[in-house]
Specification:
The protein is of the alpha/beta class and 282 residues long. The N and C termini lie far apart (95 Å). It contains nine helices and eleven strands. It is 36% helix and 22% strand. The strands form two sheets. The chain has a nine-stranded mixed beta sheet, sandwiched between helices.
Length: 282
Amino acid sequence: MNLEELKNKEEQFKEKEQKLKTIKRMAEYDGEDKVITAEQAKKLLEEGETEIHQSNIPHLDDLINGFEDGDLVVISAPTKHGKTTFCQTLTKNFDDNGITSLWFSYELQRKSFLNNFGEDLPNFTLPKELSKSSTEWLEQRIVEAKAKYDVKMVFIDHLHYLLSLDEAAGKNVSLFIGGIMRELKKIAVRWDVTIFLIAHMKKTSFDGESMKLSDVRDSSFISQESDITLLMRRKKDSQMENFTNKTALKVAANRHTGKTGKVPLAYDNEENHFYEWTDRDQ
């Protein structure tokens, strides 16, 4: 055996020795991200680590089986079709169930935002000042709100305020948005909160029957990275001239149960919120 063959044998021996050490170390690994069996994972779920929260909108809850900790929920509609009002309705309903929300409202002035809830202001939280819009700053405020007020629901109005023009310059906007979506999902999972993200919709002429995921504006990653995607469209009267108080809410994507479908909503001007309606309400 020549010198080169001896060196190869020695390297092979060292490599085998290193592998054995690695296997022994990994066999004793007990970190939070350790590998477990499917049966162990099922047991953890049965121990109630994931909470499920109802929206108090019956057909919506039937379709999605409630909102879960760690969910990223996208709500999209054309401008002035009730996205923010619907989220404020959810805030009220969650408060009725003893669940506190955190709001990041970039779209409306503080006075208008609060007035839109009406006189019966629900219990929710918000930053004293919206000084930043980075996902890092959002996460800090979410952790603060959880520590101080046991917040479980987070509303962000809306996605495009999280886009930094400086950071996005020269980049593919769709991929950049995809990165933001993944960061928000990680935050939701890391801190056991449900994040509701309002996103704009393309200016298309469609009715509530034909709404689809591709109508969400700017990036397909918005719906791809979300656990639930809800689309909204106000209804017009039979002459198609004026909007009525009726709104079509469509569960367009749903990782919980796979179910999709429409939820008929109506807006109550006096109470300033949406409710599910039936033919009996006409």
